[in-house]
Amino acid sequence: MMGNLLILLLGLLLGTGNVSIIADGFQIRLVNETDCCSGRMEVYHSGQWGTVCDDNWDLKEAAVVCRQLGCGGAVSAPGEAKLGQGSGQIWLDDVVCSGSEASLTQCTYQPFGTHNCGHSEDAGVVCSGSIQLRLSGGSQCDGRVEVNNPGEWGSVCADSWGLREADVVCSQLQCGAAVSAYGQASVNMTLGAMDCAGSEKRLCHCVSEDLSSQACRSGEDSAVICVNSGLIVEPTLSMLPPSPVVISGDQVTFRCTAPNPLYTSLDFELYQDTVGYQHPIVTQRAE
Length: 287
What we know:
- By secondary structure, the protein is mainly beta.
- It has 3 helices and 20 strands.
C-alpha cells in the first residue's frame, strides 16, 4: 500500500501518468438548431460554454448526459464533430464514466481546459427523449412558461427573468419577438432561474440555476407575452378638434390612445410636412 502511494506521489510530482479529477458541479447542454436532446456536447465553466473532446467518449458517457438532462436513454455518441464543430474553449478531455452516474460531475476527466484536441474532435450525444416547451394559461403565444422534463410539466422560476429570456421562448415557439416578461403566482415550479444571452435558439441552451440548491427568491413563475399573441393592438394618435390644416396660433390637443394595458408609456413625434424636412417639431411622452 505504501509503495503504491509513493508511486502515485512520484507520478504527480514528475508530471507522468494520466491524473483525472472528480468534477465540481457544472451545467451541461446539447447544442443544435432544433432539439434539446441531441447535439454537440458543451459544458458551462468560468462563465462560458466550452466543448468536450471525443477521446474515450462512447455510450457510457452519453448515457450519463442523457440521464442528467432528462432526455431518456443514449442512442449514440458521435465524435469527430459530426454533430457540429464548436469554437472557443475545449473544457473537458478523457471523460470516463461507468454509465450509472446521475450526472457528469460524478465521472472523471482531466482538469478543466487540459486537453490535446481540436474542435474537429468535439463530442456529441443523441438521446432517445425530447424536452418540450409551452405557454400555459393564455394562448399559444402568451402565458406561463412550462417545460416537460422529464415526463412532467413544470414552471420556471422568475428570478432574473427578463426580455432576453422571453425572446428566446417566443422565438422557439415561433411567436415573434417578446413584448413582455413577467412573473405570476407559482403553480408547479420544477426549474430554477434562467439566464440567456438572447441569441440562444432554445431555452434549454441557456444557463439555469439548480432549484434544489438555490431557492426561487421571487416565488413566482416566469411568463411571457409574444407579438403573435393577438393581445397587442397598436396605439392611435388623434387631433382635437379634427382639422386637415393647422396654422400658426391655432391651439389643438393630441390624444394618444393605447387600448392595451401593456403600454405603460408611449412616445410620439410630430413632423412638419415640408419637402426635405427631416426633424420632428414636437416630441412628447404620454404616461
